[in-house]
Amino acid sequence: MDLIQLARDLGTAIQEDEAYITLQMAKTANDNDKDLQDAIGEFNLKRIAISEEMNKKEEEKNNERLAHLDKELRDAYGKIMSNENMMRYNEAKTKVDTMMNQISAILMMAVNGEDPQTVDPAACTGSCSSCAGCH
């Protein structure tokens, strides 16, 4: 049994999964959404402007300008996150992330001696710091 080949086969199966395909379609929709791309560009410019203002010497900083830029940054972020395509993308990404966390949990539990056919990946948070140990 070649474990590397099995991992490659799993990778192929993941790419054929509906959740993965939906995520890729959502990424493409985001890339092709001019309004969204403009909002992301605006957000990045505001972030740069805030960074530049923050990096000024203390006596040169303009707190009113910083507050104004911060509000504009939050507004730009809100515009991005309320975009229909971005909302679809975030939903699709959450599904793929959940699937990948479950796959990782099964593999980690198997490495720790659990039966991979019966472990409950939903019982694992993926964070060993909050784990009381596998049972």
Structure description:
This protein is mainly alpha-helical. It is 72% helix and 0% strand. The chain is built from 5 helices and no strands. Helix 2 (18-32) packs antiparallel against helix 5 and helix 3 (34-54) packs antiparallel against helix 4 (63-81). The radius of gyration is 22 Å and the shape is elongated.
Keywords for this entry:
135 residues; mainly alpha; 5 helices
Short structural description:
The chain is mainly alpha-helical.
Write the layout of secondary structure elements.
Elements (H helix, E strand, L loop, with lengths): L2 H14 L1 H15 L1 H21 L8 H19 L2 H28 L24
Helix pairs in contact: 2-5, 3-4
Rough shape?
elongated
Output the helix-strand order.
HHHHH
Structural class: mainly alpha
Total count of strands:
0
